[in-house]
Amino acid sequence: MQRWLIQDRLRCAAATGYPVELHVTPDLRHPQFLRARRMGLRVRRQRGRDLGPRLRQAQAQRPAVLIGTDCPALGRAGLRSALEQVAQGRAVCIPARDGGYVLLGLPRACPAMFHAIDWGSSRVMAQTRRQLRRLEFPALEPAALADLDTAADYLRERRAGRLPAF
Predict the structure, then answer these.
(1) Which uninterrupted H or E stretch holds 45?
(2) Which of 72, 80, 85, 166 is most open to solvent, judged by the fewest CB atoms within 10 Å of its CB?
(3) pTM of the complete model
(4) What is the pLDDT of residue 143?
(5) Which of 66, 70, 26 is nearest to 46 (CA)?
(6) At residue 165, what are phi and psi to the nearest 5 degrees?
(7) Rounded to whole angstroms, how far apart are CA atoms 121 and 159?
(8) Is 106 strand, coil or helix?
(9) What's phi and psi for 64, nearest 5 deg?
(10) What is the CA radius of gyration of the chain?
């Protein structure tokens, strides 16, 4: 299922027409990541113990829209809209229904954005909102989407037609 999710998210991102990078761990030579290179995408190694440093590295010193691979409900239109908002200088954060987020778009580098977040908890979105306000990033916040964390999540997305049977 993870292979399918990665390929689906890469196809979705590539279809927007914006540059796409895939940040991975642990092995850049994994067949899945080599396939991404053949698609013309840049593949970079993730660095850091947890999600905060990894997101900070992925954003680096430029505007970026960061997504994971666990939200098949985030379609091309939603992703393209977020990319366009960031290109126009606006921040965007799409909440996950479980208290995290499925997309974060920042119009400029902001390493401090990823500090003081309890990654993997139900407090991530609330803490991210607080960071956005503190760092003076007024952010658009579209409706929350469901991500994949449990077997029940898989069944829901399967019934919605967003996942094949595995």
Answers:
(1) strand 42-45
(2) 166
(3) 0.93
(4) 97
(5) 26
(6) -75, 140
(7) 26
(8) strand
(9) -160, 150
(10) 15
Tokens linked to 10? 């890469």
What tokens were used for 37?
Answer: 């290179």
Q: Is 110 helix (H, G, I), strand (E, B) or coil?
A: coil
What confidence tens digit (pLDDT) does each residue in 70-98 have? 999 999 999 999 999 999 999 999 999 99
CA distances from 59 to 29, 52, 63, 100, 155 (A): 22, 11, 7, 18, 32
Closest by Cα among 105, 99, 113, 109 to 147: 99
- Nearest alpha-carbon partner for 82 in 97, 98, 99, 101: 101
Rounded Cα distance, 2 and 41, in Å: 18
Per the rule left: phi > 0, alpha: psi between -120 and 50, beta: everything else, 48 is left
Give dist(CA 33, CA 25) in Å, integer.
10
Q: Residue 140 and residue 37: Cα distance in Å, rounded?
A: 32
Distance CA 91, CA 107 (A): 6
In the predicted model, is pLDDT for residue 60 greater than 90? no
Asked whether residue 66 carries a pLDDT value surpassing 90, the answer given is yes
